[in-house]
Amino acid sequence: MADGYLETHQQEYEARKAAWLRKKAHLPSQQKRHIEKPDDEAL
Length: 43
Description:
The protein is mostly helical.
């Protein structure tokens, strides 16, 4: 009984993980914004 239970949950976990990875692959990557400052910035 325990083996079937664990196998079922392992398969469900792997399916959720695969779906999450597929979704993650299609998201745009977060790029850091580079803000250019003037050379002589007056404060």
